[in-house]
Design a protein that fits this description.
This protein is of the alpha+beta class and about 160 residues long. It has a single domain, classed as Lipoprotein localisation LolA/LolB/LppX (outer membrane lipoprotein receptor (LolB), chain A), CATH 2.50.20. Helix content is about 20%, strand content about 40%. The chain contains 4 helices and 10 strands, in the order E-E-E-E-E-H-H-E-E-H-E-E-E-H. Strands 1-2-3-4-5 form a 5-stranded antiparallel β-sheet, sandwiched between helices. It has a 5-stranded antiparallel β-sheet with strand order 6-7-8-9-10. Strand 4 and strand 5 form a beta hairpin. The longest helix has 15 residues.
């Protein structure tokens, strides 16, 4: 839909509490997702709950997105044909996900994930051929526990 790529940047936090995603540019936004809820705010607006029961694509995509980062292969196989391949460079790998059931198969053509030790790039291709690529950089796995501030981010 866009004639030029849209570049955004922000921070992404994944823990046992779920996903906290703060986009800083070009538009500030926050998304919080866990197994029970999906919250989103844009700009200075309040966090709003997205009714996932009325949006099965959003619910399934959110669950799948969490499964990708949690490495939950069994849950991914419920909705995708999963293919693992070594990458072109030593130590690299690629995982291809092809949706196999409704509602994902109606909206998504494929998801491609690649990396080394951790996921570095996640690319979603929609049925309408729109491509969204998320590149992860400056990955940190330490400290292994959340700070009090990070815990409060999820508590909103």
């Amino acid at each position: 839909m866009l004639s030029k790529p849209l570049h955004s940047s922000g921070h992404f936090l994944l823990s046992d509490l779920g996903l906290y995603w703060q986009q800083e540019r070009p538009v500030a936004s926050v998304m919080i997702a866990d197994s029970e809820r999906l919250l989103q705010s844009v700009g200075d607006g309040p966090l709003q709950s997205i009714d996932v029961a009325r949006n099965p694509v959003v619910l399934t995509f959110s669950e799948s997105f969490l499964s990708i980062f949690e490495g939950d292969e069994a849950r991914l196989r419920e909705h995708f044909e999963v293919s693992f391949q070594p990458g072109e460079e030593p130590g690299r790998w690629q995982i291809s996900l092809q949706p196999v059931d409704y509602p994902l198969a109606e909206a998504i053509e494929s998801i491609s994930i690649d990396g080394r030790e951790y996921i570095e790039t996640l690319t979603v291709t929609s049925r309408s051929s729109e491509i969204t690529t998320i590149s992860f950089s400056d990955l940190q796995t330490e400290p292994g526990e959340l700070t009090e501030h990070e815990i409060q981010l999820y508590a909103r």
